[in-house]
Amino acid sequence: MNRRLVVGVASFGMSGRIFHMPLLMHHGAFRVKCVVERRKDDARKYYPGVKCVRSFDEMANDPEIDLIVVNTPDSTHYTLARQSLEAGKHTVVEKPFTQTVEQGRELIALARKSGKQLCVFHNRRWDGDFLTIRNIVRKGLLGRLVDYETHWDRYRNYIQPDTWKERSSAGGGLLYNLGSHLIDQALVLFGVPEAVTAHLKAVRTSGEVDDWFEVRLHYPSVQVSLKSSYLVREPGPRYLLHGTHGSYVKYGIDPQELALAQGGDPTSPDWGKEAEEWWGVLHTEEEWAGVRRKMETVSGNYGAFYDSVQEAITHGTDCAVKPEEALNVISIIKAAQQSSSQRRTVPVEPAAPTA
Predict the structure, then answer these.
(1) Model pLDDT for residues 104-131, shown as the tens digit of each residue
(2) Backbone angles phi, psi at 294, to 5 degrees
(3) Of the candidates 87, 121, 155, which is a domain's last residue?
(4) Of the ranges 40-44, 115-119, 218-222, 282-286, which one carries the lowest mean pLDDT score?
(5) How confident is the model at residue 285 (pLDDT cuts 50, 70, 90)?
(6) N or C: where does the chain have the smaller number of CB atoms within 10 Å of the terminal CB?
């Protein structure tokens, strides 16, 4: 298949406007034909050549479309991804994959039956800081890693009006929203844990969904802690890694989201490059002497996700984020919810094989 793949995007909300549309429009292998907007035509203001359609049905029934991006509210992922696959479309689903493990298994089976690619947008695998950490762990720069802690904190001390993310009935909550990224990163590094111990809370006044969490993933040789809160005005380190040979500490957040929001070109030469002031500190042993230095952050690259989607569709390879991997994230989320509600550690089994 040498022609460009024709794409339909299911929403022009935050993820469509900031992530999917810029990444697709700057990628030479894709042509975005339409975006679903039920009342507005905002997408055409940014991208005049893109058509705005009023329903998902209209997009799914378009025979020209090869790929549909399901980037709608979390509670609709399963229904719309199923409709997309049943319509014979390759499908990208925004994280979190589904609301339940059973929904995810059904979509995976349907994708196999239909012979269509099913990929999940865990773009934070291509954050520069996480790519740096993967290198540190792979090269054993800290010796035997014993402690891995990551934070994703924000400061929003009010309940944001008119958003499904603040409503329990719509599948909102911080664990599904930001926690799915932190869990996915941990699974990439360490695999599926043996058990989960979690505490979830709604700490803001009048909040109805979790906006604070601490999740501990139990592995035989490394302690893994994932934390997030909406009430952190003065953030601490984003990553803290400690091993038998030293430590790595990293502040700040990957610059790609802000750059995309400001209209940056993700194919530009310096894309994803982090300013030196935000580089992490590596304090470790070299030649039996302690060495403390800044370590340059690997440049982030969200476009790599859609590189893998294009390869999967045109050559039949696996997408970089397999749906089975995304399903294991959902399994960990459900175990964390159970752990918090029952105040106990919950054993975990892989929800799906990922090999």
Answers:
(1) 999 999 999 999 999 999 999 999 999 9
(2) -75, 140
(3) 121
(4) 282-286
(5) confident
(6) C
For position 85, what pLDDT does the model report? 98
- The CATH number of whichever domain residue 214 belongs to comes to 3.30.360.10
Q: How many domains does one find in the chain?
A: 2
The domain of 289 spans: 124-300+333-347
Spatial contact of 351 and 328, defined as CB atoms under 8 Å apart = yes
